[in-house]
């Protein structure tokens, strides 16, 4: 029994000693070596950091703080590309200006039309009430007569100004200017995307921008287009001398054949005989109508103002009748002229005639170019003409054939070149 207790005592003491040793002993951690990279001298790999869109900027580092850094720029992009980008920015600004001013002048047309009609009808109503009240009303009738006369006079002055500037025609000018500037913007973007522009392209783009500025001026005083010319003159928004577009020749003839040249000449004849003459005829009719309406409106309000003035000095019923009838007719004429936007119709015909004149000159200048390589590619040019006239290639060739047959047989051409308008 004593031996068992002794053995237990030894076992317990040995286990406790092991536990104490395990609690106190700390294992050795493995040694970890940290490698610190050596610092390099600050260098700038400019050709790797600044390479973007074909531009390589080399910026040398100078140790002297007070010295001015020298920036050298070598570029694979030509200067003509940068200049065309600047032209694009100017065109985008003009598009926004014409759009905003067009909206403003559209508001002019609506507000002036409503205001003048309200003034005219109110003055006519006052004149009628004053005539119906009679002499016994005294001072109140005299006030109505004076107010009617003043309002008719104000309506006459406002109507003269409105007929002079023709707000609806101004709005149509800004619409066409916006469309043409967007068209030019698209052409330049296409040139930058698929071609290699040169200085001639830059000069041509600037001439087109200036020609559009001249054809559709923004200010009213001094440079406003004549709203009542002697006859319709087609709008001209392109430079007088156009440089032909140079495209890479697809074959020895650059896509041109004798048949294609004859086809284009026949298309020009159809445009001259049918489209241009028709739009000039319609434009002259719209111009004459606008002249008559622009003269009749202020004349009628002036007659109404005189009739109202005679009502003040005498109690003649004829004066009141003239004032009321003339005022009502003036409102009707004013509504038909500016509500119907007769000036806008005339401007639309003028621009359509200019469109056909532009096509005619463009085709003729291309055909008259002696150097085949300087011409626009024939197949591409034919497709552009067909799209501008709203026709397919087969329809365009049929029109040319019909024109040729009609000239040979001496019969009139019964078809227009354009199917768009």
Automatic annotation (TrEMBL):
It comes from the Eukaryota. It holds the Pfam family Chloroplast_duf. InterPro entries: Chloroplast_duf (IPR027949). This is Probable F-box protein At4g22030. The gene is LOC107961520.
